[in-house]
C-alpha cells in the first residue's frame, strides 16, 4: 500500500511553487524563526524535497504547469492586449471631445483616468517578458590577445 504525503509535505510543496525556493518553503511550513541556522534549514529542506514521494509530486505538478504554460501565456497576452486596445480606444474618444466645453469637461476627466499611458506601457512590458523579448541579446565575442612577458634586466 502506497504511503500518502503528509499535510506538512503537501504544504511545503505548495509553498515551494509560490516561493520557488525549497528552503523558504520549508521555513514557512515548519515555522522557522528568522535567526535559525540557514545551513541547517537548507539541509532539512533538501532532505524533504529528496523524499521519493515529495520529488514525484513536485515533478508531477511541474509537468502539469509546463503543459498549461502555453495556454496560460495565451490568456495573459490576450488580456494585456485588451488593455492596450482599451487605451487606444479611450485615447481616440478623448480626442473627439472639446475640453473647453463645460458640458464635456467631465467626460475628458473620465476618459483621461481610463486611458492611462502607464497601464499601456506596463502591458507592453509584460507581454515582452512573457514572450522572452526582454532577455538580453547574447553576443559571442571572439578575440585573440597576445601577451609578451619579458624578464626584467638587472642593472649594475
- The shape, in one word, is flat
Amino- and carboxy-terminal Cα gap: 89 Å
Radius of gyration: 28 Å
Number of strands: 0
Oligomer: single chain
What count of helical segments does DSSP give? Answer: 6
**Total individual domains:** 2
Instruction: Report the structural category.
Output: mainly alpha
Helix content: 55-70%
* Overall pLDDT level: 78
H/E element order: HHHHHH
3D structure, described in words:
- This protein has six helices and no strands.
- Helix 2 (22-29) crosses helix 3 (38-50).
- The N and C termini lie far apart (89 Å).
- The relative contact order is 0.08.
- With 156 residues, it is mostly helical.
- The chain folds into two domains: 1-50, no CATH class; 68-133.
Give a nutshell description of this structure.
The chain has 156 residues and is mainly alpha-helical. Helix content is 65%, strand content 0%.
Describe the secondary-structure layout.
Blueprint: H1 7-19, H2 22-29, H3 38-50, H4 52-95, H5 105-114, H6 117-130
Helix pairs in contact: 1-2, 2-3, 4-5, 4-6
Fill in the keyword field for this structure.
mainly alpha; 2 domains; 6 helices; 0% strand; flat
Amino acid at each position: 500500500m502506497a504511503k500518502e504525503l503528509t499535510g506538512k509535505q503537501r504544504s511545503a510543496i505548495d509553498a515551494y511553487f509560490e516561493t520557488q525556493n525549497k528552503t523558504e518553503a520549508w521555513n514557512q511550513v515548519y515555522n522557522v524563526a528568522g535567526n535559525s541556522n540557514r545551513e541547517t534549514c537548507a539541509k532539512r529542506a533538501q532532505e524533504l524535497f529528496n523524499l521519493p514521494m515529495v520529488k514525484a509530486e513536485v515533478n508531477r505538478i511541474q509537468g502539469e504547469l509546463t503543459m498549461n504554460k502555453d495556454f496560460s501565456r495565451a490568456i495573459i497576452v490576450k488580456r494585456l492586449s485588451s488593455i492596450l486596445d482599451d487605451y487606444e480606444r479611450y485615447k481616440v474618444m478623448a480626442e473627439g471631445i472639446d475640453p473647453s466645453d463645460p458640458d464635456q469637461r467631465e467626460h475628458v476627466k473620465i476618459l483621461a483616468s481610463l486611458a492611462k499611458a502607464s497601464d499601456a506601457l506596463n502591458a507592453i512590458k509584460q507581454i515582452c517578458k512573457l514572450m522572452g523579448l526582454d532577455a538580453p541579446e547574447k553576443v559571442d565575442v571572439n578575440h585573440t590577445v597576445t601577451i609578451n612577458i619579458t624578464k626584467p634586466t638587472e642593472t649594475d
